[in-house]
Amino acid sequence: MDCAISMRGVVKRFGPLTAVDGLDLDVRFGTCVGLLGPNGAGKSTTMKALTAQVIADEGELEVLGYRLPEDSKQARAEMGVVPQLDNLDVSLTVEQNLLVFAHLYRVGPGERKAAIERALRLANLGDRRNSKVDQLSGGMRRRLLIARALLHEPRLVLLDEPTVGLDPQVRQELWALIDRLRSEGVSILMSTHYIEEAERLCDTVTIMSHGKAVAIGAPQALIREHAGAEAIEVYGPPARLTDVEAAARGRGWRTRRTGTSVSILHSNGATDLDGERRVTNLEDVFVLLTGEEIT
Amino acid sequence: MAATRRLGRLEPAALQGVMVREVVNFSSFWRSSTFSSTVDPTIYLLAFGFGFGSLVSTVAGYDYVDFVGTGIVATTVLFSGAFPAMYSTFVKYEFQHTYDAILAAPVDTEELVTAEALWIAARTGVYGCVPMLVAVVFGLDPSWGMLLVPGIAALAGFGWACFGIFIAAKAKSIESFSYWQSGLLTPMFLVAGTFFPLDKLPTWAQVLGNVNPLFHCVELVRHAVFGFEGWEDIGHLAFLMGFALLSWRLAIRFMERKLIL
After folding, report:
1. Is pTM, for the whole model, over 0.80?
2. Rounded to an integer, what distance in angstroms lies between the CA atom of residue B188 and that of residue B209?
C-alpha cells in the first residue's frame, strides 16, 4: 500500500445527472494532490465519497488502506476533513469547538488539552481562545476549521476548497499553513478551482471535467505538455482577435480567449505574431482541457 | 491488500462525542430552554388546576389538581422531547451543516441519532418532573412512586425525540412542521387523558387515545404516583418501549436517507 487514497472507476449518479463518471484518483503517501475543476465538475461529490457521505454507485475506493464504504469509519478516524461550508458551532468559543472535536475524534482524555493547545498554536488563535466563533473574521474561522481537522494528528487531510471566498492576503496565510502540513509529511487531497493554489501547493494535480479526470500530472509537466513553454497574448478589437484565432489554428496552434485578448499556445519560436510573450501557466492547461474559463 | 480493522456499531466513544457537543452547546442556551420547558407546564397546571378545578373537584376518582398535575408530566415530555428534536435537527442539517462535520469524524448516522435522542431524553427526564413538583406545592401528596417518574419521562422522551428527528428528516422545509404539529401532535396532546379522562369519550376517540403514546405515558405516570395497576401498567410500559424502538429505527432510517447520498 503506497497510496493514502486510491479510487478506481468511481461513478456516482444523482438521478439523471452523472456527477462522477469513472474517476481514477491516487494520492501517494506524503504528497499533496490537487483536484482541479470548474464548478459542477464533481469535485465535492468526490470529496464526499471519501468520507462515505456519498456512496459510489460503481468503482472501488480505498482510503488509508481501508475499503469504502464498509470500513469508512476506521478511515475517518485516521483522517481530517476541512469542509467547503463553514460548519463551526458559532455560539461556542474557539476552544469549545476544538474540545468538541477532540471528543469526536477520540483524542484520549490525557492528551486532549495538549491537542487543543497545539491546534490553537497552529491556527494562531491562542489569544482568541475564548472568543465566540461569530466574532471571528472569515480568515480566522477558516484557520479554526483547519485546526479542528488536525486535532488527532491525521495522516491524511481532505481540504474541500480551503480558501474559497477569502481575501488574497488571507489566502496566502492559509497556503503557508497547508504548505507546513505538507512539509510535515501529511498526505493531502485538496479540491480547488483556484489555479494558482494548485500550482503552488500541489505535487500533482488531477484536472476534472464533467466527472472525469481529463489530465493527471505535476503542474509543470502538464503545462509543458498541453500549453508549451511560452504563450503569445494578442490584444485588439473582437474582429482582429477572430482573425488571429483563425490564423493560429491554421498553423496547428491552440488558442484561448481571455476576455479582451487571445492567447496563442504552443507557438514556441513563432516570431511573426504581434503580441506580448508570457510564460504559460496551469490556467492555460485548465481552459484548454475543460473548455471553461475561470471565474 | 486492504486493512481489515473495522469499528463497530453504536460505539460508546462515538455516542459520547456527539453528546459532548450537545452538552457544551446546551451550556449556552440552557436558560431559555429550561424556562420554556418548566414555565409552560406550570401555566397549564395553574390555568387548568385552578380555573377548571373550581368547576370540578374530582375527576375519575382523583382530586382535579392531582389529576392534572400528573397528566402534565406527560405533555411536558412531549413538548420538551419532540419539539427541540424537530427544530434542532432541522437547523443543524439545513443551516449549520453540523452533520457534515460530525459524519466526517468516526461517527455513523445511527450513533448520531441515538446520541442526540439520548441527550434529549435525559433532559425530558428532568423537565418532566417540574410540573409534578409544582403540583406537590399545590397539594399533591408526595409518594415513593414519584421516584420512577424521571425514568418514565426519559423513556417516553426518547421516543418523542426520535419521532421529532424522524419528522425533521422527512421535512423539506421548516414550514412543513405545521402539518405535523397541528395535524398530529396537538390532537395527541389533547386526547391523552391529561385534562379529562378518555373513558367518557365516544369509542372512536378512545381507540385513538389507546394508540397515542402520550396516553400511555399519562397513565403510567399517574399510576406511578398513586399506585400501579399490575398488568395494565406493564401494557403501558410495553407500548412506550415499542414506540421508542419504532421511532428510533425510523429516525435512523430517514436520517440516513437524508445525510448519506
Report:
1. yes
2. 8
